[in-house]
């Protein structure tokens, strides 16, 4: 896969675009005004692999909270602004590493210029975000409805507007909830601009449907070498977005770091609580950056065979199971020890 070469853009301590790795983003679902809750969530997401975090800035209190949040976190913070340019100015003043605006809803050219000037003064990037849901009426009319072409035209017009104000420290995001339209829009915009692209499918749904839509949409877009930073939007706890983003990037061979989890679907032979175990292990492995495969299998009939390719595995029996390392059975362990044993093995993995 040949990667689309985009301009490098620095967001706090992370650089996207160029040959830099595709950065994983998420968005807090805490009230930004609640500094403690927001910091806690950002720390949890950072530990899981989030590299850039976005927070909503709907109030003056939220904008002012940014400086306090920033003191406690290690990853760049993006302020998400809608409608009120003064909040954008305040977010920038409070140290936001990037601001996300839709130039079409910030209140006119003068107000946009004020935001652009403030971003320029601190040299922080502006993410120009366009969603199919907020497409201008004249563009909808021109293309006879909401189309990929219309979304791209809208985004490029807004980018031009900011360029004409003398600023080119930009990232573009175009999102549509129609997955195939989103793919087409990214294909269309990819060679029409040099700016890095933040890719994601907007409002894809709950964990199950959202993961499928994002997996297909992002998979198709990324497979064309398009995308400099991604967010898998999901209705639910943001930690799931990080798990999904890492899984997508790993599955596509784009990222090597991070543990791959293999688990069996369970069947009538399963005699351990494998579903609960797999879910716990999924959370556990987020904390390690090894390029290895961990398997949790339901039975000792097929488990060892199916786990043979994994670096570390458990094959369950009745109330107990086999610990398997590099395809070799190490010992029997009790069911209640499964999780702690895997954690111990992973904590000491470099010793193996
Ligand atoms: Fe069933 Fe065993 Fe295969 Fe799991 S590993 S699906 S329990 S046969």
Describe the structure.
- The protein has 352 residues and is α/β, with parallel strands linked by helices.
- The chain has two domains: 9-251, TIM Barrel, CATH 3.20.20; 260-351, Sulfite Reductase Hemoprotein, domain 1 (2-Layer Sandwich).
- Helices cover 40% and strands 19% of the residues.
- It contains twelve helices and 15 strands.
- The chain has helices spanning 35-48, 60-72, 85-93, 109-122, 137-143, 148-163, 179-190, 207-223, 239-251, 274-285, 303-307, 338-347, and strands at residues 9-11, 14-16, 23-27, 52-56, 77-80, 98-101, 126-131, 170-175, 198-199, 229-230, 260-263, 293-297, 312-316, 320-325, 328-334.
- The strands form three sheets. An eight-stranded parallel β-sheet has the order 8-7-6-5-4-3-10-9.
- Strand 1 (9-11) and strand 2 form a beta hairpin.
- Helix 7 packs parallel to helix 8.
- The model has no long low-confidence stretch (mean pLDDT 93).
- Iron/sulfur cluster is lined by residues 264-267, 269-270, 297-299, 301-303, 306.
Question: In summary, what is this structure?
Answer:
40% of the residues lie in helices and 19% in strands. It is of the alpha/beta class.
Features:
about 350 residues, alpha/beta, TIM Barrel, Sulfite Reductase Hemoprotein, domain 1, 2 domains, eight-stranded parallel sheet, five-stranded mixed sheet, 15 strands, binds iron/sulfur cluster
